[in-house]
Design a protein that fits this description.
The chain is of the alpha/beta class and 252 residues long. The protein has helices at 2-23, 58-70, 84-89, 104-107, 148-156, 170-178, 189-199, 224-237, 240-249, and strands spanning 34-39, 48-49, 55-56, 73-78, 95-96, 110-117, 121-125, 140-144, 163-167, 184-188, 202-205, 214-219. It is built from 9 helices and 12 strands. The structure holds arginine (ARG). Pfam families: SBP_bac_3.
C-alpha cells in the first residue's frame, strides 16, 4: 500500500514537472526556448534574403513578432517549399510561415492558424501578349513545385492546352521567364506583382483563382496553434498586422 502511494507521488511529481516545462517557454537557466520556423526564402515580399544573407519579409517579421509575444527565441530554417509539410510532419520544425495557403488538402497533414493574408494568383510574362486564360494555349507555363499554383495550373490545363514546367524555387521561375525557357509564370499575386515592378514584366490576374488565404502551419495537434491564433488576433486588433501589410504588401 505504502509503496503504491509513494509511486503515485513520483508519477504526480513527474507529470507536474512535465506540465511545468511545456507551459513555459523559458528553460531553467532563464534562457528562452527556441521556436523553430521553417520557410522557403524564395518568395519576396513574404520571405527572401537581403544582400547580407539575412531573412527579410512579411512572414519573417510576423514570425519574429509571434516569437517575441510568446517568449521564444526564433530560429529560421530555410528549405524548399515542397519539403515544408514533411518537415512539420517529422517535427523538424515547430511552425511554417511561407506564404502557405491553408488548403483543405494540406489540412489533412498539418494544422493551420487563422488566415493572416490573402493574395490571389497572377500570370506573369515578359511582353503583354496574353490577356486571357484562353490565350495560354500552346504556351509553356512555369509554376513552383508543391504550390497551389501547381495544382491550379493542372486544373486549368483541363480546359486550355498548354505545357507546364515545374521548378522547385520561386526565384528560378522568374529566371526561366527572363531566359525564355517558359512563356508565363503562374504565381501568387503579391509575389508576382513585386517581380513585375522590379523587372518590368507584364501580367494579368487569374480570374479563375479561388485560393484560400495564407496561414501559419503546425504539426498536427500542436499546442502552439491556439497561442499563435491569440497573437494574430491581438495583432489584428491593435493594427500591427495592418502595419506589416502596409510595409511589405502595399500594392496587393
Ligand atoms: N501560396 C502558395 C501556396 O501555398 C505559394 C506559396 C509559395 N511560398 C514560398 N515561400 N515559395 O502554395
Amino acid at each position: 500500500m505504502k509503496k503504491g502511494i509513494g509511486f503515485g507521488i513520483i508519477i504526480l511529481t513527474l507529470v507536474l514537472s512535465l506540465m511545468g516545462c511545456s507551459s513555459s517557454s523559458a528553460n531553467e537557466s532563464g534562457q528562452k526556448e527556441k521556436l523553430v520556423m521553417g520557410t522557403s526564402a524564395d518568395f519576396a515580399p513574404f520571405e527572401s534574403r537581403n544582400s547580407e544573407g539575412e531573412f527579410v519579409g512579411f512572414d519573417i517579421e510576423l514570425a519574429h513578432a509571434i516569437a517575441e509575444e510568446l517568449g521564444y527565441e526564433l530560429e529560421i530554417k530555410d528549405m524548399k517549399f515542397d519539403g515544408l509539410i514533411g518537415a512539420l510532419q517529422t517535427n523538424r520544425v515547430d511552425m511554417v510561415l511561407a506564404g502557405m495557403s491553408a488548403t483543405e488538402k494540406r489540412s489533412k497533414n498539418v494544422d493551420f492558424s487563422t488566415e493572416y493574408n490573402h493574395s490571389g494568383e497572377i500570370f506573369v510574362f515578359s511582353e503583354a501578349t496574353i490577356s486571357s486564360v484562353e490565350e495560354l494555349e500552346g504556351k509553356t507555363v512555369g509554376v513552383q513545385l508543391g504550390t497551389i499554383q501547381e495544382e491550379g495550373a493542372k486544373k486549368l490545363q483541363e480546359e486550355v492546352d498548354f505545357d507546364i514546367k515545374l521548378v522547385d524555387n520561386s526565384t528560378t521561375l522568374i529566371q526561366e521567364l527572363n531566359s525564355n525557357r517558359i512563356d508565363v509564370a503562374y504565381m501568387d499575386k503579391a509575389a508576382g506583382e513585386g517581380y513585375m515592378k522590379e523587372q518590368n514584366l507584364e501580367g494579368f490576374d487569374d480570374p479563375t483563382s479561388s485560393s484560400p488565404g495564407m496561414a501559419v502551419a503546425f504539426p498536427v495537434e500542436s499546442e502552439l496553434v491556439e497561442d499563435v491564433n491569440q497573437v494574430l488576433k491581438k495583432m489584428e486588433e491593435n493594427g500591427e498586422l495592418d502595419k506589416l501589410k502596409e510595409k511589405w504588401l502595399q500594392d496587393s
